[in-house]
Amino acid sequence: MKIPPSFLLLSIASLTSIREIAAQCYDYTDALDLNARIPTSCKLVDKIEIPTPPTKAPAESSKFIIDYKCEIQTNQDLCARAQRSIQKVCEILTENLSLRKNINVDVSLKDLCPTDAQQSCNELGGAGFARTMELLDDDDIIREYPTALVKQFDCDQHYEFGDVDIRAVFNGGNATSLWFEGDPQITSDQIDFRRLVLKKFINALGVKTSWIEQPIFDKVSPTILTPQLTLSQENGGDFEFKGFKEYAYDKYIIFRGKELQSIHDAAKSLDEFVKEPDVKFKDQEEFIAQLVKSPQIEAAQRMANVSVNPFTLGFLPRGAKSDDDVIVLETSFNPYQNDVSMNNFDASIYADTEDFLMVSTLTSGKTLEDSMGKFLSPLGPRLISLLETLGYPTKKLPENDFKTNTEVILTKTTYVVTEIKTVSKSVVTVIEIVTGPPPQQTLPPTNNNPSQDDDNNDVIDNFGQDIFNSSSFNIQNNLTLMFIALVCCILGSLNTI
Ligand SMILES: *[C@@H]1O[C@H](CO)[C@@H](O)[C@H](O)[C@H]1NC(C)=O
Ligand SMILES: *[C@@H]1O[C@H](CO)[C@@H](O)[C@H](O)[C@H]1NC(C)=O
Ligand SMILES: *[C@@H]1O[C@H](CO)[C@@H](O)[C@H](O)[C@H]1NC(C)=O
Ligand SMILES: *[C@@H]1O[C@H](CO)[C@@H](O)[C@H](O)[C@H]1NC(C)=O
Ligand SMILES: *[C@@H]1O[C@H](CO)[C@@H](O)[C@H](O)[C@H]1NC(C)=O
What we know:
The chain is of the alpha+beta class. The chain contains 10 helices and 21 strands. The strands form 4 sheets. Strands 1, 2, 6, 7, 8, 12, 13, 16, 19, 20 and 21 form an 11-stranded mixed β-sheet that branches. It has a 4-stranded mixed β-sheet with strand order 3-4-9-5. Bound molecules: 2-acetamido-2-deoxy-beta-D-glucopyranose (5 copies).
């Protein structure tokens, strides 16, 4: 059911107490732990236009901005060599992608070895997104999109990005296990540091599934796999279930078989678990017990089952015509390995192809160039098509265009998500508008358009009305009325290459 926007604009205009427009974002605070995830509300802001410089210099494409910290004070040489490798990786990525907005990366090199010197040190490190934001996809599922990707959509309005898009931590504690450009011949137990960084950065760009074995379900048998879970506890009281959320990448994952079938159904089914607002549980055990008893548990068990059987899951690139175009994902590890399974390509198929980079084992004893052989780029054609499918503009497809068209749609509901049909081929942002204090408060005069100088949080223009005081977005906890506004960001035609 689609409600005409004009009607909805009217209905919102008559609401005088709306104070807050914020979307659900998640901050990921630890590059090595997908569970270090904090829900945070983020405001809608207008795109900042960067004035075009008067010179006729060719427009420089956007790039990765690296904030690098080396915490191995005793080995400055290592610090410098690692830095050069990271720069090289960013060059490879920028040469192959056609970024519209800079991506800010926070990288540190640390000693991640166990303090007990007796224990071996095989930790390599990793990278992940620093912030995601919920967007309602054209298949009616709200997914978490990493900011690095949302930036490339280039919407006129978007939710606040953080200072950092990607967080990475690498281990410099076992320096002899790493090989750097310019070093002598690589030894059989050394890993080319560029390969490691490139691989992890690609995951952090969004080649990452939300389907993991959550620590909270450790004791559930048979094993279950679920998307990211938000279970929040308020002031030591009840636990509130706020849903299972997939990532952008998961939209394109399919069950392989006679017929290609998307895993949406599994995600949708899990989403059915307790739909009402305020789904509260006394404690985590009660939540787990309820989930295990629910009909939804089957979908989670099925995912756990297929994800440990080889060749069962694939990534469907946009424009795929047959099963041959499907990228077979790594599902041969049993038990499932969070962060490895499903995030890589099947090694038995792709290890010797141009897409060698995307297999799970970080080949040691071979430099990136050794592995490339006569291939022209470390990024294979399947990986490029995957990144294009996610929405990254690339050298091959610079017009991978998520055109923006801001439209406000409102629906009165107590729980986000339901019943909203969106424009097909669109990515839609969900905003919650929370009611403010009682309406006796006088409204401010209308012509207080703030100057355009900076990141303004002025939402007045979005709705073509003046009822908001843009400088007073206080989060109100009283959700007597909750409205959802959707800002669409419509995908341009992808057929025009
Ligand atoms: C990708 O990057 C590599 C390494 O920098 C470069 O050799 C190659 O030409 C690039 N490929 C494309 C399609 O731009
Ligand atoms: C350092 O890494 C190498 C190669 O992975 C490994 O063989 C070695 O045991 C590690 N060193 C320590 C002290 O753990
Ligand atoms: C997984 O699925 C296969 C095939 O559908 C089935 O034979 C097997 O019993 C399942 N395993 C578990 C643990 O459910
Ligand atoms: C509206 O914002 C202005 C500052 O721009 C502030 O002085 C004023 O108190 C605010 N009014 C209300 C009703 O919050
Ligand atoms: C909050 O909501 C309740 C009803 O749910 C209402 O009685 C109360 O007045 C509201 N408080 C404020 C500050 O709006």
